[in-house]
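Problem: given the chain below (209 residues), write out its structure.
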Amino acid sequence: MDSTINPFKPQTRRVRRPASFAEALLEIGGQVASETRKAAGDIAAGTIDSLVGNFPQASGELKPQQPIDPEAALREQEARLRAEQEELRRHQEVIQTTIYNREEEETKRQIEGLQAELKLLAEELAKAGMVVDKVVDEEIVEPGTYHVNFFVKMREFLIQLRKRVVESRNWMALTAQRAKSKNYFWGQVKRSGTKYLLSQERYMSTSGG
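Solution.
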């Protein structure tokens, strides 16, 4: 028998066989006891970690030792609230400006319509004045009671018309004066602020109505 060891031949590991059934049972019991001690050690280590708070940290989670700044959180919330309020205020300003522009355009159209109507009335009054001049200058061939009554009624009509014209003229002059004073008042307020509001000049300019 060749006792030379072949290096290319895999070496077989000899497994020791227990001498008896009792010895095999003791070996199995030793392995079970070793594994049981290892498992018990792992469980005890995990229990201690859970008691002291030593947990594995997941990505993106807040660490137990990481401090929380309540003031910073409050400032962030207040800043977010201010931004929302500012956005709401700008939205309300846009709506109010749109409504104001619409009302201003409607008022402007009404004024333009009234001005056109007044212009037509003035032209009609001018024509009526020409008719009156023609009637007054016309020579009466056969004067009678009819002519007297006609001229009396025309005189009453012209007196009432003149009265209304004078009242309208005074009203328009007063309105123009008030508008001028109002524009002057707000111009001074814009220029001088509360200083003009408390001045004697402001009292004199507004005391007249």
